[in-house]
Design a protein that fits this description.
By secondary structure, the chain is an alpha+beta fold. It is built from 13 helices and 27 strands. The chain is 26% helix and 25% strand. The C terminus is likely disordered.
């Protein structure tokens, strides 16, 4: 298709490249990425407006890089607190350690940032409304879903009756109670937790810290995350009989729990809920032409702050692959790698979130004392201290299977986004601002004359090409492509492992392949390239 939604009116079938079910943060992020790649998108949302409930509250640097790719980073950056990590406290109320970025701004953005979900949804919706390739339909509820070999048909209920949408692919971004997942007959595996937590979002709060606070007091484990303009999130472990999961917490309970920190009036409570956490992963993330993303694919306790960020990673992994298939540069096999690549990391993140809850938020005094003693002992060792403070306990995000080729240097890992000096334009910019958001080929100190051969196997991808200067020299040959120079050690650190090699970056900035100039690989099968269709064709209809 040509990137426009075709709307024949209420009586006809609305057609687009991709239909997204759910206008929450993950669904709108996916829509923004797809539109930025030139696809037409229809987003359907059963609610009349975006959510006013501040659910997710932390967004990380990887997610902000995704919004940069989607063209809406400026909108998102203005609603965050540029955060400085998370501080953990022991049973005695004293700080244990503060977790923060090992390399500040490695991905070009602040590391871990509090925000209010209603603000994010408002900015994302405004971004989509301004894009002619996107149609957002509120008060539109999925009632039926059918698919065949060429596309997906969604039957939706609206205020005016029934609306049919036809798309090449459909994304289920409709949350933990996903209608798409239910219609596809996909179950979830994992467990729920008996503990009940009260979550309160309040206004007019005195906290001004730019970090979250996890208090491991076994008498009442609790979390405090300050936000912008006096907003603050409080989370408290509830004792038996205080409030059941799913019940509306009485104001007196909320007031009593917050009393050690502040006074509170009813009009300052933006949201208060009592609920149990879940650690669940969908049994399948793809059924034919339909995919599950975000909470529809995985749900986790909040203690690692990765629920929304994991959903944004889903969108970043899948959307460029769909665009590649519709353009004819990738085969359908590329879409199978969405689950292959994302599931292991999502499962590990769910497991970490549950483990942090058991250890950091334990109600067992003996375990809490042991935890604090172990952490304080670790803090006396530089290596163990770095393990904690740099959050090296988080599961690494490395793809070993999927659209990656093995190499003598790391592949399947995300390359950072350092500042670089762009010699052609005489400007210092972030890496992605120079090489764009599609495929990119970097030559790290390779001979300037060899790019033609390196590009021969990559013609369907049409990558942006850049030469990374190594050391204190610049290429002398006018045949060299755009030249990038290190300005602060960041570019050199990110590319040191690839010196003397070509590095192929995927649109999600993971390293797809690397190779020395004298050994170009055959990447057609590894990267699911469709060599039967030349690059540059219009999107498939």
């Amino acid at each position: 298709m040509d990137g426009t939604v075709v709307d024949p009116g209420d009586s006809g079938v609305l057609t687009a490249d991709v239909a997204v079910v759910g206008a929450g943060p993950v669904g709108m992020t996916a829509a923004a990425l797809l539109a930025a790649d030139g696809l037409s998108v229809v987003v359907v949302e059963r609610n009349p407006v975006t959510s006013d409930a501040p659910k997710a509250i932390s967004i990380d640097d990887e997610a902000l890089r995704v919004y940069q790719a989607a063209g809406c980073a400026e909108r998102v950056l203005r609603i965050i607190v540029p955060g400085t990590g998370t501080r953990y406290y022991g049973a005695d109320g004293e700080p244990l350690f503060q977790a923060r970025a090992e390399v500040p701004y490695r991905f070009g953005h602040p590391f871990k940032n509090p925000f209010a979900q209603p603000d994010l949804e408002r900015e994302l919706l405004a971004h989509l409304r301004a894009d002619p390739r996107v149609s957002v339909l509120m008060r539109t509820e999925l009632a039926g879903l059918r698919q065949d070999a060429t596309g997906v048909e969604l039957v939706c209920r609206t205020a005016g009756g029934v609306r049919t949408i036809r798309a090449a692919y459909a994304l289920g971004c409709d949350g933990g109670r996903s209608t798409v997942r239910d219609r596809l007959g996909v179950g979830m595996s994992g467990r729920g937790f008996d503990d009940v937590w009260l979550v309160a979002d309040v206004l007019g709060d005195p906290h001004t810290e730019r970090y979250g606070m996890h208090h491991g007091d076994p008498r009442r484990p609790h979390v405090i995350v300050p936000g912008r303009e006096g907003r603050c999130r409080y989370e408290f472990h509830l004792h038996p009989g205080e409030c059941a999961a799913g019940q509306q917490p009485p104001f007196e309970l909320v007031r009593r729990l917050l009393e050690p920190f502040r006074t509170l009036t009813p009009d300052q409570v933006q949201r208060a809920v009592a609920y149990r956490f879940h650690a669940l992963v969908a049994d399948s993330w793809r059924v034919g032409r339909c995919f599950l993303l975000g909470d529809a694919a995985h749900m986790m306790p909040p203690f690692a702050g990765q629920g929304l960020n994991s959903g944004i990673r889903d969108a970043a992994n899948l959307c460029w692959k769909i665009a590649g298939v519709l353009r004819g540069t990738l085969t359908d096999a590329a879409l199978d790698t969405y689950e292959t690549e994302r599931r292991p990391h999502a499962e590990a993140t769910v497991a970490l979130s549950a483990k942090l809850g058991r250890i950091v938020m334990t109600t067992n005094p003996r375990l809490a004392r042991r935890r604090d003693a172990v952490v304080r002992a670790m803090m006396r060792s530089p290596d163990k201290r770095a393990y904690l403070e740099h959050m090296r306990y988080r599961p690494p995000q490395r793809y070993r299977d999927g659209l990656v080729a093995p190499g003598g240097a790391p592949t399947g890992v995300m390359l950072g986004q350092p500042r670089v000096f762009d010699v052609d334009h005489g400007r210092t910019r972030l890496l992605d601002e120079v090489v764009g958001h599609g495929w990119a080929l970097l030559g790290v100190g390779v001979p300037e004359s060899g790019y033609g051969r390196a590009l021969d196997a990559l013609r369907p991808l049409d990558p942006v090409v850049a030469h990374v200067a190594v050391g204190d020299v610049l290429p002398a040959s006018p045949a060299a492509p755009r030249v990038l120079v290190d300005v602060d050690g960041g570019l050199e650190a990110e590319t040191a492992a690839y010196r003397g090699r070509y590095v192929l970056l995927r649109p999600d900035r993971f390293v797809a392949a690397c190779w020395p100039p004298d050994a170009p690989p055959d990447l057609a099968e590894t990267l699911a390239l469709d060599r039967a269709v030349p690059a540059g064709l219009p999107l498939a209809g």
